[in-house]
Amino acid sequence: MSNRWILAGAAQVDITPPAGHVIHSGEKVAEGVGDPLFAKALVFDDGETQAALLTADVILLEADVVTDVRQRAAATTPVPAANVVFAASHTHCGPATTRCLSPQMSGEYMAELRVRLSAVIAEAWQARRPALVGVRLGEAKVAVNRWVETDKGARWGVNWEGPTDNSVNVLRVEDADGSPFAAMVNFAAHPTVVSFGANRRYTGDYASSLQATLEARYPGSTALFSNGASGDLKIAFVNEEGTNFAYGDLEDARRYGTIIGEEAANVLAATATRPVDSVRVASTWVDLPLQPPPAEEELRRELEKPEYPPWGQQWATEMLSALERGP
């Protein structure tokens, strides 16, 4: 390996909308800000290959948004569109960013979000400097499996014996003087400590305080968060019996974020860095087959359930219309 140093740059932008936007699947309207929401970018450049990592404190980003932001980034920086990688934190307490969860999604906000996501990549590009890179693994035992197997199939619940990943993966990017100016943390758990509670304020849930903890430990740095394979994992915030999940307030979410953030900060401090030869990007497109659509009778039964969520009713109604149109 040579002593050649790649260039790296980081930037962040506030993407918190004003109060009044729909949060959590269209069921609540935000009354204010608990924790600001951010989009953050980390770019790498070896002179031949360029790549960008983009994180955002939103529930998800649809394909058309990803495509548009990639094209905007490619038009304003040398980073190819295909070399921009996205990671939505999946907070349930950010603005609605998909109509499948909320028909009340704000088109005005989404247009502004596209601009800000592409702009933060351009800002990170302008902030490039020679950098050393290192990775290290830690652990924070705060996640738990959220599905319990029964003789009638899986049901929602706390499964202390189920597969769980409590790894805290940390990427450290530092200046020539050894000072970290960027860190990316990957942890696998749904940011939903407050999502079904009484909260009506924007927050990235535990991911907000996780990033804030790192940035407080290293002033002037940019801390990014990406969610791991968290489909079956939640933060282990449970009732006194430990049999079901509880939903708390902002301080509960911040407590867990601080726990993970402190572990990430300790891991970051112990991470050794080195010069990196080059940047490489690889990707594979995977077509996942869809399940057959439910039968009409099944959809109508689901619509009759009083506890059915609004976005589920919307989905079932659209599925019925699709069945009526034919294959």
Highlighted features:
globular, single chain, alpha+beta, five-stranded mixed beta sheet, 6 helices, 327 residues, four-stranded mixed beta sheet
Q: Any overview of this molecule?
A:
- The protein contains six helices and 16 strands.
- The chain has helices spanning 63-76, 107-126, 206-217, 250-270, 296-303, 310-325; strands at 7-14, 22-23, 28-29, 32-33, 38-45, 50-56, 84-88, 129-130, 132-139, 143-150, 153-159, 167-174, 180-187, 201-202, 222-227, 233-235.
- The protein has 327 residues and is an alpha+beta fold.
- Strand 2 and strand 3 form a beta hairpin.
- The model has no long low-confidence stretch (mean pLDDT 92).
In angstroms, what is the radius of gyration? 21 Å
Task: Summarize the helix and strand pattern as letters.
Answer: EEEEEEHEHEEEEEEEHEEHHH
Overall shape: globular
Which structural class do the helices and strands define? Answer: alpha+beta
The number of strands is 16
- Our measurement of the CA-to-CA distance between the termini, rounded to an integer number of angstroms, reads 56 Å
Helix run count:
6
Main sheet: which strands, in order across? Answer: 7-6-5-1-8
- Uncertain segments are none
* Beta-strand residue percentage: 25-35%
Roughly what is the average pLDDT, rounded to an integer?
92
Describe the largest sheet: 5 strands, mixed
**Residues in helices, as a percent range:** 25-40%
